[in-house]
Amino acid sequence: MVIGTIADAVGRQIEGAARGVSGLLFEPVIRLGVTGLSRAGKTVFITSLVANLLDRGRMPGLEAAQSGRIEAAYLQPQPDDTVPRFDFETHLAALTGPAPHWPESTRSVSELRLSLKVRPKGMLGGLSGLRTVHLDIVDYPGEWLLDLGLLEQDFAGWSAEALARAEKRPEAEAFRARLATIDPDAPLSEPQAAALARDWTAYLKDAREAGYSDCTPGRFLLPGDLEGSPVLTFAPLPPSQAPRGSLARECARRFEAYKAQVVKPFFRAHFARIDRQVVLVDVLGAIHAGPAALEDLRQAMTGILGAFRPGRSAFLSTLLGTRRVDRILFAATKADHLHHEQHDRLAAIMAALVAEARRRADFAGARTQAMAIAALRATVEERRSVDGVDLGLVRGILLDTGRQAALHPGDLPEDPAALLHPARSGAAQWLGGDYGVMRFAPAPLTLRPGEGPPHIRLDRAAQFLLGDRLG
To answer: Which residue, among 331, 259, 395, 306, has the nearest Cα to 37 in the 3D structure?
Structure first.
């Protein structure tokens, strides 16, 4: 086992060295990780970003596009032959076709390579000519990212935290009822373990639907070909003696197997190779779900950053394959659900939610930024007087009914503490206002030649993530 671990580490270092030399001496590669929790819009973000890099008419905030230094952009086969390709063409057709609709959400890892022919700045551009910069976009579910925090926990510690959260949530009622009938120290019964795992999975799905973020293990929600396997057949249990052959002993063993056989391979194969990262967050959805959901999101964001290993990679460490994420964008999505007058407030709430996480990243040498964006703009704005009050509204096609509506979801507070303080204090509901949430369908589009889909601040997000590497 030790020899295998050493060989695995050496192999990763050699692979990292090859990538580093290739990037430094030939054609640089930017590996951009895109993740977020449920309904944050990862698929739409990637699709719109790629479409707007291919046709850059709506990207004035990306300096290399605005100045015309990006002379060509084209899709290429990705470098990882064993990773599914991100289905860009199908997703773009869903968003821009005659009957536009939201594409299917992320359920596994996928990848896409976009290559850019870029003219360097200043005199260097005239002397060296065009160079190729490859953008490798890695899409992976945020639920899997939450699992990285399990690597530092044992079964007893995870069980204590998970059960404490479940105790406060009505979604866990069926699981709690079954758990009350079980003796963890009794001999293992596979049907009993399977029933517990099913109830825990049902609870996680209901909790996610209710707006909660920290729902681990993430593969219980997106099992893929692991569904029904022993590595996904366990559940948190109360403290016990855990004698040999007991349910508690076997659940603890399977928890360790989950970390070793599911979480660590994902980290090694995909996550550890990322050098730029986008974390997409449905802040409006969490606010609508209530103070407990918003606090759960804040804690999840803090825990997520610990997995990023933030900091600037030195020349030697890049060659040795110990890459670190050196830029992280925390993006509050669905800014088009608010009038632009409230976008700064949404960005401020996003910044406050990840303040602790950003301090850690900044200390480690990474650059971070919080922003309010809409990767695909589905609404238009208007103003209307309602009961003598001038309101900024957004108009769009409601997803549930297909009808046009102009709505005002409520005003976000100027001070994020008006939301974060009651959330951290355990308030049951908001006292200062009722924050609505709407689900809009994508609007029919008529794109002019050279234009990508309409968006809000996607160009500024691209500038932060890629601009320094396109110089």
So the answer is: 331
